[in-house]
Amino acid sequence: MFIFSQRYSTIINLYLRFVVSTLVGFFLLVHSSFSKEMIRGGILTAVPFYSDQHQYNFNPYELRSGAHYARDFIYEPLWIFNPLNPESNFPRLATHYYWSENYQELTFKLRQKVKFSDGEPFDADDVVFTANMLKAHPELSQSIDWFDELTQTGNLLDVIKVNDLEVKFLFAKPDHLAHQRIGKMYILPEHIWKKMVHPHQFSNRKPVGTGPFTEVKNFNKNKFQLCRNTYYWEEGKPYIDCMQFPQIKNHEQAVTQAASGKIDWMNAVIADIDRNFVQKNQNNKFWFFPTGQTSIVLDTNTHPFDILEFRQAMSMAIDRDYLLKVSQLSISSSNVNQQSLGVFSNDKDNANLGKFDYLFQYNQKQAAQLLTQSGFIDSNGDGFRENPDGTRLAFYISISSERTDLVNVLIAVVEDLQDIGLNVRIQSATQTQWIESVALGKYPAYIQGFDEDIVDLSSIEHYVKTQQNSTKPISLVVVQNSLQPLYDLIEQYHGIKTPSEQSKILSKIQSLVSEQLPTINLFSNAKSYQYNDFYFEGWANQANPFIRPSVQMGYPERAIHVLNLSLKTRPRYRIER
């Protein structure tokens, strides 16, 4: 009896083990198959913009507030280029583009079966309408460059509807890079915007777009949500339900909330980021992705910045090694001449740059001598230099009050310039006022961190031109006649097809910028990006650098980023939030 019971028990145990292992295996198999499916749902909290309070504005061509949320999330461009991985671009409202043989006709083929968020179909009429609206309203921020018969500037002559899904752009001269500017145009629904007499004043409170998040919910001055577009063309996306935007006044408030895990996605410069961010929450992560330059931008049509020797003296007076110590930015290089334009960092053939190294090396004695030789002397003994004609010389360098990460840098720059007798002070404004004033050309000198757009010349043109024509606030005009050769080289580059010839022109541009100093480059830097991965997965990071992961306007890839995010587990989200 005992033996039988023991055998029976053994058989039962083996049978139970078999059943359990089979059930576990089946569960794991089922779980594995289901885990391949993205989990839909959740509200992602993001901070693309600092402001005193949210403005009820979703105009993608209004830069003071609306565009920060409307671009990329509500409205889409034709094409998203990927500077971090140029071989992996993202077609959006267009699926293909091709040039004519003479590079004066550019055709975009549009995506089929796309609808706006009100159910109306998207087609070529909307693209043609948007381009012509931008032509009629140059005060709107835009990427396309219409030809102006009066000034003989610009290049785009006309836009033509070929059929419902094909649009052709005609140019005055060859421009093999124009597709990158045209592709950035945010397309508006003609049936809504054709009613707007003054589109730049349209607050667009009930936006209708083709983007992944078009439904405005729970709007107030402190917080609002953009929720899923049920008509979005990319099947199954977005995975998350809504993006939530809390009102964040400044950098310090953003860091405080992010450190406690209340923000999923933002960009902020955080001193001692391991201690002040990562160690505050085990799911707080960051990545410093490559970007461009921090510079003092000068309007070289304005005295004294119209004098080359004055710009050269300013550059030599700055102790860049000290700037690296006081800056909160992640610095990749202090050799600004070597990478005076980050976009050229892959061009190794420019052997001429070495002769301009002295302009970026700290030498206050030589800077002071250069000013004296140019007639800038302290004629009244007050400690500050006067103009060559004896009149008072004083100027401001402007900064956005929200750029607390650059305050110490600018203080150090001003102190260095004062040490050589220049009467310079700091001028600040709120970010909204500062952006508007820069666009209107009201600041002869300002400090700015630039993000290089590796695949085109737009950032280069920003360096060598200045926004200072009040009759056309957003248009860029050449900085001064002495830099006309630089402008000519840029124009020449647009018409060149072969990589070898392009490289030669790039080297010439790089040398000329280093010599003429239309801006005073301070250092190369990376851009800080933070995320909390407790609820969501799919984040770009150093191990998965598929795009530049900034949530800020000016990074169209942010749409690709958010479309890649999904909940880790639904129960966790429901319980915790």
How are the SSEs ordered, and which strands pair?
Layout: H1 2-35, E1 43-47, H2 66-70, E2 79-80, E3 90-91, E4 94-99, E5 105-110, H3 124-136, E6 156-163, E7 166-171, H4 178-182, H5 190-193, E8 213-220, E9 223-228, E10 242-246, H6 251-259, E11 265-266, H7 273-276, E12 284-298, H8 308-316, H9 320-326, E13 330-333, H10 364-373, E14 395-400, H11 407-419, E15 424-429, H12 431-439, E16 445-449, H13 458-464, E17 465-466, E18 477-478, H14 484-494, H15 499-516, E19 519-532, E20 536-537, H16 558-563, E21 566-567, H17 570-576
Parallel strand pairs: 1-10, 1-11, 14-15
Antiparallel strand pairs: 2-3, 4-5, 5-7, 6-7, 8-9, 9-10, 11-19, 12-16, 12-19, 13-19, 17-18, 20-21
What would you note in describing this structure?
Helix content is 30%, strand content 20%. The chain is an alpha+beta fold and 577 residues long. It has 3 domains: 43-56 and 211-283 and 533-576, D-Maltodextrin-Binding Protein, domain 2 (3-Layer(aba) Sandwich); 75-201, Dipeptide-binding Protein, domain 1 (Alpha-Beta Complex), CATH 3.90.76; 291-526, Dipeptide-binding Protein, Domain 3 (Dipeptide-binding Protein, domain 3, Roll). A hairpin with a 5-residue loop joins β4 (94-99) and β5 (105-110). It is globular and about 70 Å long. The N and C termini lie far apart (59 Å).
